[in-house]
Design goal:
Distance between the termini: 22 Å
Largest sheet: none
Structural class: mainly alpha
Helix content: 55-70%
InterPro entries: Odorant-binding_protein (IPR052295), PBP_GOBP_sf (IPR036728)
Family: Belongs to the PBP/GOBP family.
Number of strands: 0
Organism: Nezara viridula
Keywords: Secreted, Signal
CATH class: Mainly Alpha
Number of domains: 1
Shape: globular
CATH architecture: Orthogonal Bundle
GO molecular function: odorant binding
Amino acid sequence: MMDDYIWVFLWPVFGLLQNEVYGAEEIGECMNITNDLSTFSRCCRLPELELSEEKKAIAESCHRATIADQPVPFTEEEEEEMYECFQECYLNATNWLNADLKPDENVIIAEYNEELKNFPQWKESIIRTVQTCIANDYTKPEAKCKSGAFQFGNCLERNMFLNCPEDSWQGTDEICVNTKRTFEKCMINSNKY
C-alpha cells in the first residue's frame, strides 16, 4: 500500500468552471472523478518499481506520525488532512519539496529518470506529467499541512494515466476507454487535476 503513495479538492470550484465549459449535464460526471489505482494499473501498464528500504522506512515513519494513532471514526475532511500530512511528511523527507513547500521539479524528474531508466518509453510522459503538476500552486496556507502534497500526488497519478505511453496502454475495454475519455474531457482544460 505504501508504494501507491509514490504514484503519488477544490471540486466545487472545478465543477463551476466545468459548467461554463461543458454545461450542467456533464457536471456530475466530472465531479465524480476519483483516483482509482486498480483501474489505472489495469488500463495502463505502469512500471513495476520497488521502494528502497530507506523510502519504506520513511513511509512507515510518516505513517506512524500522521495516520497510525488517529481516533476513528473520522470525517472525510479529517481523512484528507491525514493523507495530506502523510504525503507532506514523505515528500519532505525524500526532498521532493523545497523550503517553500513547493515540489522541486529537478529533484522529482531526476529521481524518476533514475528509477525509470529500464522503462525509457515513460521518460517523456513523466516529464510532461511532472511539469503539468508543478505548474499549479497547491499550497494551503490555512491548513495544518500546507504544501498541498496530497493534491500534487493526485495530479501526478491522474496525469500519468492521461500521459500513458502508447506501448503501455492496455485498456481497450469500456471501463478504460470511458475513464480516459472522462479524464480527458474533465481535466485536460484544467491543469489542476
